[in-house]
Amino acid sequence: MFTSSSSSSSSGYTDEPDSKKRKLNSFSFEGDLNSRPSYWLDKTAIISFEKTDSMYNKIIGILIRDGLDVTNYDISIECNCDLDRFNMYCQQKKTFMRILGSDKVNERWLYHGTNLENVNSILINSFIREKNKEKRSLFGKGTYFSRDPNESLKYSFGQEKVLLLNRVLLGESCLGTKDKNSPDCKSNSHKMYESMVNKLQNPSIFVLSSGSDHQCYVEFIIKLKCKNSLMSNRERNIELHMKLLEHSHNCSDPKCSLSNCKKMKDLIKHSKSCSLGFFNCFECKQFKGIISFHSIRCNNKKCTMPNCVNNKGFSQTHLPQPRTPPPLQPRIFPPSYQYIQNQLILSQQEVGRLQHELNQQNKKALSNLDILRQQQLKVATGLKKLSEQQKLTTEKINAFSSENHKNIEVEEDDHIFDSEKELDEDSDPDEDFYIPKDDYQKSKLIIKLHLAKKK
Question: CB-based contacts of 116: which residues, under 8 Å, 6+ apart?
Fold first, then answer.
């Protein structure tokens, strides 16, 4: 990429070899506070270079040298001759030389890719860092520059792409990390580094963040119109879908003659009413892909296209003044994510409530189990006492039965003997109870059984 003759020997990263620096020095930094660059031609407006101009051919040569295939584009080059902003840039350069030293100014020519509709805003208002989208904050929040034109072209969309060739004062740089709001402070100082880089060894991406309002000047606007024969099918499809989306969103004619206008209207209507979300709905997933490309190009904070503002993720506060570290800002969730977060909180509360009820029921169950165990113990004790009482009662009954049996036998013997006397006195051989004397023992047993039956 373009570099100045001054190098950054102690800025925290390693630069290109000296041989490459000498090769890049062919395009010098003309102009100062008291003199304009010679190719401005004493004008204070935007001037266009013809293809026959030496400046046009010089910039085309630089693009080729930096790896851009210029045969794929019809290229036009303009020069921004804004004397006021150029003087502010030169004043900042002079301040760097006084504070950092001339060997640490680290002035470079770097590329910045953008869309055609953003060019006028950048030239009038300079770069607005709060428009930097979250997904472009891989190396910190700020304005991104690259020494590779192909890398910068990734952020320019449409058939006519735009590369801005800028003078940039990098000063001393620190390593940038994702979502870093501002550069780190230098050692033993409250002063921040002047820029951030993607890597400390031979960086290719540079970020200007807080305190860098006049560290860059947009000098050349390079417009690259893609040749239709060389455009990929994907790029052509994206362009057609973008035009169809903008037309359908603004079209109020129910009988529009444009092909697929009604389909796009139905898709927009479906995305507003669908409750499944793009994870579960194929049509919503399709629409999200189209809206993502639209939101990258759109800079309207109040865009009425569904989900366009949510995809941008614009910051809601202004960046702080130079040399003041910005406060940490709370993350702004799109409504869909906020809804999911609220649902998660509600579900956690519901889980807590159910857990509390379960604990209460467990306590009741344990108390009921204790009561049941006490009752079982009482029943077991009662059964034990009852068995002991039954045992005593059985023993008493057995004792009483044995004693009563003895008394019965004595009474029966006495009665038998009385009966025998009666039989001896009044014996009749024809009666039922006649017993022969010679069979006394047998007759005694029969009488005993006869008496037992009567009882």
Answer: 158, 160, 161, 162, 223
d(CA 138, CA 124): 27
Q: Delimit the domains of the chain by residue range.
A: 2-230, 233-332, 336-454
* Distance between CA atoms of residues 81 and 175, nearest Å: 33
Closest of 225, 224, 216 to residue 2, by C-alpha: 216
In terms of DSSP bridges, do strands 173-175 and 195-197 run parallel, antiparallel, or are they unpaired?
parallel
What's the CATH number for 233-332?
Answer: 1.20.1020.10
pLDDT tens per residue across span 170-225 = 999 999 888 788 888 888 888 888 899 988 888 999 999 866 678 999 999 999 98
Identical fold at 2-230 and 233-332?
no
Q: Would the pTM count as exceeding 0.85?
A: no
Residues 6+ apart with CB under 8 A from 49: 55, 56, 59, 77, 78, 79
How does pLDDT run across 239-266, given as a tens digit for each residue? 778 788 888 888 888 888 877 888 888 8
Q: Give the strand pairing for 160-169 and 216-226.
A: antiparallel
Nearest-5° angle of CA 166, CA 171, CA 177?
Answer: 90
Q: CB under 8 Å to 87, separation ≥6 — which residues?
A: 33
CB 130 within 8 A of CB 166: no
Please state, in angstroms and rounded to a whole number, the distance separating the CA atoms of residues 225 and 72: 8
Fold entry, domain 2-230: Phosphoenolpyruvate Carboxykinase; domain 3 (3.90.228)
Residue 136's CB is within 10 A of a number of other CB atoms, namely 15
Q: Are 319 and 130 in contact (CB under 8 A)?
A: yes
**What is the distance between the alpha carbons of residues 336 and 288, in angstroms, rounded to a whole number?**
13
β pairing state of 195-197 and 160-169: unpaired
